[in-house]
Amino acid sequence: MTRVVTFLEVSAALINKSVSRNPSVPWSQEAKYLGIIFGTHLTWKQHILYVRYKFRKIMFKLYPLISRISHLSIENKVLLYTAVMRPILAYASPVWGYATKTNINILDTLRNFIIRMIVKATRYMRNDDIRNELKITGFKSHIQKIAINFFNDQPATNNYNMHSLIPYIPNDNSKRPRRILLDSYNPP
Predict the structure, then answer these.
(1) Record keywords: Transferase included (predicted)?
(2) Cys-Cys link to 99, which of 24, 44, 120, 150 (CB 3.0-4.6 A)?
(3) Which of 51, 48, 30, 49 has its CA nearest to residue 40?
(4) CA 88 to CA 136: how far, in whole Å?
(5) Residue 90 in contact with residue 111, Cβ under 8 Å?
(6) CA–CA separation, 74 vs 70, rounded Å?
């Protein structure tokens, strides 16, 4: 379904003038495209809540395999996490990776919950110690690694529109997707 979503603060008269040709197109505060929810202010809150919902659904389906009472080995549980569950959390992360720490912590909390369930951790075990023992990278550094691979592979694409884009100039103060690559924003 076609919707109208504005991402910039432009005058309502200009928007109404351009949409007046087709008045049946509804206005919306968010739009879903390729599994990513774009909100009007691009805070990514709606998308991250949707990812949390999807992750919980798959977590409940895989619960018999990854629960504390499962007879699978820890290696197989970690493989289930890295092959099936982590891609759900990190899907399209080069786009939304510069979201606020609060929003990214929502997904990091889910990841910590699953990892603690996999190893049957007690409440006194630190998440960092568990991650180091399992050799699982931190969530923010994982997102950063995906973004580095994505932006490094971009020049090799066959898409003409991608080649006609203006070259990227890093700026520490900009709120753009490539900002995730800067160590000052997201240390590994």
Answers:
(1) yes
(2) 44
(3) 30
(4) 16
(5) no
(6) 10
- Predicted confidence (pLDDT) at residue 87 exceeds the cutoff of 60: yes
Phi, psi of 167 (to 5 degrees): -60, 145
Chain centre to alpha carbon of residue 46 = 11
Residue 119, pLDDT above cutoff 70: yes
Confidence band of 184 (pLDDT split at 50, 70, 90): very low
Q: What pLDDT, on a 0 to 100 scale, did the predictor assign at position 54?
A: 95
CB within 8 Å of 70: residues ≥ 6 apart: 64, 77
* Residue 146: per-residue pLDDT: 87
Measured at the alpha carbon of residue 142, what is the angle toward residues 67 and 114, in degrees to the nearest 5? 10
Beta bridge partners of 55: none
pLDDT of residue 79: 94
Give the 3-state secondary structure of residue 89.
helix
Q: What Cα–Cα distance (Å) separates residue 54 from each residue in 33, 61, 173?
A: 16, 11, 32
pLDDT at res. 19: 56
Tokens of 74: 């820890």
In this prediction, residues 88-108 reach a mean pLDDT of: 88
CA distance 135 to 143: 16
Are 160 and 168 contacting, i.e. CB atoms less than 8 angstroms apart? no
